[in-house]
Each structure stands twice: as structure tokens, then as C-alpha cells.
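Chapter review. Work through the record for Chaperone modulatory protein CbpM before attempting the end-of-chapter questions.
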Amino acid sequence: MERDVLRVDISLDAPGLDAEALCRAAGVALTWWHEALQAGRVSACADAQGFDAAALRRVRRLAWLQHHFDADPELAALVVDLEEEIERLRAQVRRLSFDAGV
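C-alpha cells for Chaperone modulatory protein CbpM:
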């Protein structure tokens, strides 16, 4: 089984990715990203620092779900939203467990 390898060089001193770099790193066309942005499935860059790892992870996951499951873009976005919410809740439970000494 052959795996595609994507190498992304990131400098800790450099700001986040711009839209073009985000699309290259995620393996999607800039037009795909613009369509997702217009539909509200991805967020525009919130600050001058550029896109962070969470934005890259979201774009890659959306594209993967659409490609591998032939998922409707809105359904893929809903799945990613739910996955992100589950991760947020798990982190909250971990923090609460740590604070309680469990």
C-alpha cells in the first residue's frame, strides 16, 4: 500500500500560513477553499498571523471526507464540526479530572 507523503516546513518564527500556502499544504485548489469560505465551511483568517494548524487540519479533514466518502460538502462540514466539538469536550473533561485530582 503506497502512502502519499506531504512535507510542510514550518518556522516557529514565521507567521501562520496564507490562503495559498494553506491550500498547498492541504492539497486543495484555491477555488475549492474560496467556495468553502463563501459557504461558511471554513473561516477566513482571523488575524495578521495567518492560518494556524487547526485551520489546516479542518481544511484537510473536509477535503478528505468529501473525497473518500463522496460526502456532500455541508455534511462533511457538519462531521468536522462535531469532531471538533467532541475534542473540545474531551479536553474539558481532562482538565476537570486533573483539577479534581482524579
